[in-house]
Structure formats: structure tokens, C-alpha cells
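RECORD TYPE: protein structure
NAME: Alpha/beta hydrolase family protein
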Amino acid sequence: MAASPALFYLIPGLGADERVFQFLRLEGEAHVLRWLPPQSLSEPLLHYAARLATAVPEDLACWLVGVSFGGILALEVAQLRPLARVVLISSFVGPGELPWVAGLARVTGVHRLLPPQLLPRLPRVAQWFFGVKKGSEYRLLQQILRDTDPAFTRWAIGQLVQWRGRPMASVTRIHGTADRLLPAGAAHSQYLLPGGHLIIVSQAAEISSILNQLAAETAPGQVA
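PREDICTED:
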């Protein structure tokens, strides 16, 4: 009997959407989990993850591929879908991997004072943090920042700085060697690729190859 094609569920980063996955070439069936509007600014992350998980079948082995903040949701959704395996791209598994400023925000709540519209107004600053080159990558980043929902951003940042983490031994991690937003992630990743935080775009061909290889070598639901 022929093996079933790989099933991927892709979760974009904070404020991003399916555009960050447009250059992937996956051998199988791929679905982007679109962000849902938070029910309120106080909606717990676990409750949000449960709503997001309704798009992922309980009885099918699959891959949850989360980028940046989407990695947090991939880890939480995986708690509800035991047949899923997780791949983190430019992401993290706990607060110990966040920059010191996140710890400061957790203690002081200073992030609540910053307008979520600030970063879209400073595209060159965002370009530096994301490690994005000029040209098509920069234009894509500008579009994503412009289209980001401020209410969702405020909710997500609040959840991010308070998240206690979800270490999982079987997680596969892919990270950029020059990631300025989450530099600590490189030390914990099995696959290191040249580039910054937006390697899902700049290294799409290599990431596609890694994901296709993982799917071919290890069936989801099995522990590698």
C-alpha cells in the first residue's frame, strides 16, 4: 500500500499570513492556519490554541510547522493533537530563549504602553531586526507590517511575554544564524541556515527540502 502524502499545517508568525509560505514547495498537502481574532484581550493562549486546533483533524498524523510566534501555537496545538509532530522555524520553546527585554516586559508590563502600530511606522528598523534584504523581501515585510491588525498584535505580545514555555523532546527546529529577534534559538536548533528572522522567505528552498526530507524519513505521530 502506498504511503499517504504528508500533511502539513503551517502557522505564520505574529501579524503575518500565508504570504510568508508562498515560496515553499512541499511534497504533500499543505494548509495555512489563519489567525483568528482574539475573543478579548484577556483570552488565554490555551483557549485560543484550542480554537485554532479545530482546523486540525484529531485522527490524522500531520506536521505542525510554526514560524516565530506561530511556533508557540504549534506547540500548544500539539498538546491537543497527539498524532502531530512539530517543526519550529525562527521560534523558541520557552522564556529562557527570549531577549532580556521580554523578561523586563513580563515584570513591568511596559509592553502595554507601546502602541502596536509603532513597528509598521518604522520599516527600516523592522528591516534590521528581521534581517531582511532590500528588494522583494523588504517589500513583502512592508506589506505584512502594514496589514497587521493592532488588536491582534497587542493580544499576541501580551501572551508571548507571559508564556511559560512548552519544551518537547521531539521538536525539530530550524533557525537563522543571524536572527536578531531570537538569537538564542540558534544554539538549540538542529538546522542552522544563513540569514535572519525571516528565513522562511529567504531560505524557502532549503526549508522546503528539510520539511520534505523529514516527512519522507519519519511518519508523523512517531517519535524520531
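COMMENT: Residues 204-217 form the longest helix (14 residues).
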